[in-house]
Write a structure and sequence with these properties.
It holds the Pfam family TatA_B_E. It comes from Caldimonas caldifontis. It is found in: Cell membrane; Membrane. Keywords: Cell inner membrane, Cell membrane, Membrane, Protein transport, Translocation, Transmembrane, Transmembrane helix, Transport. The chain is mainly alpha-helical. It has a domain of 88 residues. It has four helices and no strands. The longest helix is centred in the middle third of the chain and has 75 residues. The radius of gyration is 47 Å and the shape is flat. It starts with 5 loop residues before the first helix and ends in an 11-residue tail after the last helix.
């Protein structure tokens, strides 16, 4: 960049003072400062965009490398699984042919698979965590009543005032 010393800056300031004048010099200096700030921000934005694009390219390269490695691993695993399943089928066919020539197991010795039995509980119903016997023993209310119902329940019975003959 251009190297400005103190003497060069003083010379530029003196020329600007003479050419522009003392009344307009602060306004022009402020405008030049704003323009330089905008230029610096624009250069910083361009640098950041270039850095982002470089990082994006690097990430794309890494992504393709990982995808290739994953595909290679998947192919290797599937080849190994196919080889092992082929060996197993071969061993199974040899074992069944040596056992009796039939590839299906004997009829009488295998139990049928167990049938599913529903537990009979409704799991969606919210249940309390405190057992019912604990509530009864310690006086926890299990049924909710309104205030009027509670008063009517515990009100002593009415005694009729009519005396019968």
């Amino acid at each position: 960049m251009i190297d400005f010393g103190f003497d060069k800056l003083a010379l530029i300031g003196a020329v600007a003072l003479i050419v522009i004048g003392p009344e307009r010099l602060p306004k022009v200096a402020r405008t030049v400062g704003h323009l330089l700030g905008k230029a610096q921000r624009y250069v910083a934005d361009v640098k950041a965009e270039v850095n982002r694009s470089i990082e994006l390219e690097e990430l794309k390269k890494m992504k393709t490398e990982f995808e290739d490695a994953a595909r290679n691993m998947e192919q290797t695993v599937s080849q190994e699984v196919n080889a092992v399943s082929g060996e197993f089928d071969k061993a199974w066919s040899e074992a069944t042919s040596a056992a009796g020539g039939s590839s299906s197991p004997g009829v009488g010795w295998e139990a049928p698979p167990p049938q599913y039995k529903h537990p009979g509980k409704n799991w969606r119903v919210k249940r309390g965590a405190v057992p019912q016997w604990y509530r009864q023993r310690h006086g926890v209310r299990t049924r909710v009543q309104s205030g009027a119902a509670r008063v009517a329940r515990f009100r002593p019975p009415r005694v009729s005032s009519k005396a019968g003959p």
